[in-house]
Specification:
single chain, alpha/beta, 2 domains, four-stranded parallel β-sheet, binds zinc ion
């Protein structure tokens, strides 16, 4: 009997110890070591893949937030200053970055401009102003380079290289793993580019008509599509009535059967224009940022790009290969 009671006490003690240990584990931050802060979603996704389990990567942009008008709040600046590595896209996408970085008093922070070696396309006068009422001032401020470089997969590969350079410099002890993970990413980008090349070769129409801001010019240039968007290179630009009428006319003349809508904005305007033109609506994701839902589903850059390819194949009536 004594033996039985001692056994029960031992059992309760063991359970209590395990429970406390379990609670403590849950309170501890999952990863120590290098802390990395990125701005846009593609940078975040590339950086977390390169990091594996050796660094803690976070995205500065809160889920669903409009990226072109985003500027970090004081608490977000503190997050940047406490990181070992801060990665942004370019001064065309984050015009606030240079000023904030030069003002930070951090001896340990390393900063990477991921778009430094990318090939930029200059936004033409028409791209910037495309009937938008509010974008002119912004376009001039941003020296009129199109900031959507991550939508050209060759540029995306250059960005992976730049991000890798940052990881290797900040944490040389794990450089072999970082290089391996970056190589895997670049191989996937090459395969993705090949799929786009093959599948967009055989489309009934090459006209990519977009009821959003001027996001997909890099993609259109790379795959020889003729791109038209409703508004300018920044998503805060408002389209004019003339531009809306012109787009509806263009849809009707082109014989297109779909108008593409952009993510993170209400599709109401695109739907109204599509109805007016008698065509359907399909979503194309610019991948600047993702929604809270996307985060909880662990969506990746590659998921978004594969989905875009399916939408393009349907919207431009391309043959599957
Ligand atoms: Zn944009």
């Amino acid at each position: 009997m004594k033996f039985k009671i001692a056994g029960v006490i031992m059992y309760i003690l063991c359970c209590t110890v395990l429970l406390v240990a379990g609670c403590k584990r849950a309170e501890v931050e999952p990863v120590a070591g290098l802390k990395v802060v990125t701005t846009l979603f593609p940078l975040y996704d590339f950086a977390r893949t390169i990091a594996g389990d050796k660094a803690q990567v976070t995205m500065l942009l809160p889920p669903g937030v409009e990226p072109h008008t985003f500027e970090p709040k004081p608490e977000e600046m503190i997050r940047i200053s406490r990181a070992g590595l801060f990665i942004y896209t370019s001064r065309y996408m984050e015009p606030w970055a240079d000023k904030i970085i030069s003002g930070l008093d951090s001896k340990t922070l390393r900063v990477i401009n991921a778009g430094e070696k990318a090939s930029y396309r200059k936004a033409s006068e028409r791209d910037q102003h495309k009937g938008s009422k509010g974008s002119d001032e912004h376009s001039h401020d941003r020296k009129v380079m199109d900031p959507h470089i991550w939508l050209d997969f060759s540029n995306a590969s250059q960005m992976v290289d730049a991000i890798l350079e940052g990881f290797v410099a900040a944490d040389p002890a794990n450089s072999a793993l970082y290089r391996l993970n970056a190589d895997t990413l670049k191989t996937r980008l090459t395969a993705l580019d090949q799929r786009y090349q093959n599948r967009l070769k055989t489309c009934f129409t090459r006209k990519l008509l977009h009821g959003g801001h001027y996001t997909f010019a890099y993609l259109a240039d790379r795959y020889n599509l003729d791109y038209r968007a409703l508004s300018g290179i920044s998503s805060d630009s408002e389209p004019s009535a003339e531009r809306m009428i012109a787009l509806v006319r263009e849809i009707k003349l082109s014989g297109a059967t779909y108008l593409f809508a952009e993510e993170l904005l209400s599709p109401r305007l695109t739907e109204t224009l599509a109805k007016e033109a008698g065509v359907g609506v399909l979503m194309l994701h610019g991948a600047h940022n993702v929604s809270r839902d996307d985060i909880s589903r662990s969506v990746t850059y590659f998921d978004l790009m594969e989905h875009n390819l399916e939408q393009l194949q349907k919207g431009l009536s391309c043959r599957s290969r």
